[in-house]
Design goal:
Layout lengths: L1 E5 L6 H12 L2 E4 H11 L2 H12 L5 H11 L9 E4 L5 H12 L7 E6 L2 H9 L1 E4 L5 E3 L19 E2 L6 H15 L3 H5 L4 E5 L4 H11 L3
Parallel strand pairs: 1-3, 1-4, 2-3, 4-8
Antiparallel strand pairs: 5-6, 5-7
Bound molecules: adenosine monophosphate.
The site of adenosine monophosphate has 17 residues, from helix 2 and helix 3.
């Protein structure tokens, strides 16, 4: 199965992708995670992408198409992918179809997480993760049970994304509205889009996604 998760920053794409990975064995492909890893490693690609990402704008289609293309080589028994944060432009959506088509594959389902943007700013600017295991937390909605200690792995090390500040979040949302939301008609024409209320609890959103996925 090849599933695309669409929705503005903070809509819960990463959280749902991680859950589907754990429950269904699907492989999460997050271009944001790949780009952050490249920035951290200081690779030439990371150096090119960093300023654009810090500003909340989109990196070039060529870069992200290349990142995804490198990872689409899969054996026949592969369980499938969840694309999280990709495609983000019409050109990326078309490139994805071409890359999949060359392997006899296609996007099976697009899930759009429908959310309220003002609530998202609050969601995003409060979030942080364990620097060791990646468990997600929030200043108001999910603090560690013991102060400064990860519930999962006990680490005392936490981190926040540089681009999770209000000004950058607003830019990222504007980018979503201008460049990513217009992809929806492309997928609507293929009758593969399901819309899910992303403002509900994590469990309710998860159940709504499961209800629209095959198997
Ligand atoms: P994300 O973690 O998905 O919110 O992505 C973080 C940042 O990485 C975005 O604000 C963009 O600067 C960049 N990025 C991630 N995925 C893409 C993509 N598919 N196209 C262009 N830029 C991307």
């Amino acid at each position: 199965m090849i599933l695309v998760l669409l929705g503005p920053p903070g809509a819960g794409k990463g959280t749902q992708a991680q859950r589907l990975t754990a429950e269904r064995g699907l492989v999460q492909l997050s271009t944001g995670d790949m780009l952050r890893a490249a920035v951290k490693a200081g690779s030439p690609l990371g150096q090119r992408a960093k300023a654009v990402m810090d500003a909340g704008e989109l990196v070039s289609d060529d870069i992200v198409n290349g990142l995804i293309g490198e990872r689409l080589d899969v054996p026949a028994d592969h369980p499938g992918f969840i694309l999280d944060g990709y495609p983000r432009t019409r050109a990326q959506a078309e490139a994805l179809d071409a890359m999949l088509g060359a392997k006899g594959l296609h996007v099976d389902k697009v899930v759009e997480l429908v959310v309220d943007e003002d609530a998202l700013v609050d969601r995003i600017t409060g979030r942080f993760t364990c620097a060791n295991c990646g468990e997600g937390y929030h200043n108001r909605y999910k603090l560690p049970k013991v102060a400064d200690t990860c519930d999962v792995c006990g680490s005392h090390d936490f981190k926040r994304r540089i681009d999770d500040n209000e000004a950058t979040v607003r830019t990222r949302m504007a980018e979503y509205r201008a460049k990513t939301a217009p992809i929806l008609p492309y997928y609507d024409a293929k009758h593969i889009v399901a819309r899910v209320d992303g403002m509900a609890s994590m469990a309710v959103v998860g159940a709504a996604i499961d209800a629209v996925l095959p198997g």
